[in-house]
């Protein structure tokens, strides 16, 4: 039996700190021609890549960078590829549960809790406040079942991802 696989296998990582960390483990592999995907095994047609940031997030990302004063970015798990309308409706219906991001700020003498959600959401348009929260893992399956019944328009932000996957597959056929 041949080791070749008929269809490519493409692993996708969330575009958040955990996903980026895992994706970087593949930095030693070259990029597949004309893409941002890493070619793991040409014979077996195995690739990996990051979920692209939706164009809708360009302005919120700019605001977060200005607010933080550094190169901070917005984490994009696959759930955040949906439009803000879909995500906000899912949150209102308690289908997708979000929790605030907090951390401890300290120097050599003082220590205090900092609510990053409040800090950053105050500068974002209300429709994008969800970007400053973490998704509770327990709600991810419920959300995936909920979105299965949505119309095709709800998946419009997935178009760049599908386009990049199609480009990868087309290049793979050459």
Output the keywords.
174 residues, alpha+beta, three-stranded mixed β-sheet, two-stranded antiparallel sheet, 6 helices, 17% strand, globular
SSE map:
Elements: E1 9-13, H1 17-24, E2 38-41, E3 46-50, H2 58-68, H3 84-92, E4 98-100, E5 102-106, E6 111-115, H4 116-121, E7 133-135, H5 140-147, H6 159-173
Parallel strand pairs: 1-3
Antiparallel strand pairs: 2-3, 4-7, 5-6
Could you please describe the fold and organization of this structure?
This protein is of the alpha+beta class and 174 residues long. The chain has 2 domains: 9-52 and 158-173, no CATH class; 55-157, no CATH class. Helices cover 33% and strands 17% of the residues. It has 6 helices and 7 strands, in the order βαββααβββαβαα. The strands form 3 sheets. Strands 1-3-2 form a 3-stranded mixed β-sheet. A two-stranded antiparallel ribbon has the order 4-7. The longest helix is centred in the C-terminal third of the chain and has 15 residues, at 159-173. It is globular and about 55 Å long. It starts with 8 loop residues before the first strand and ends with a helix.
Structure described in brief:
The chain is an alpha+beta fold.
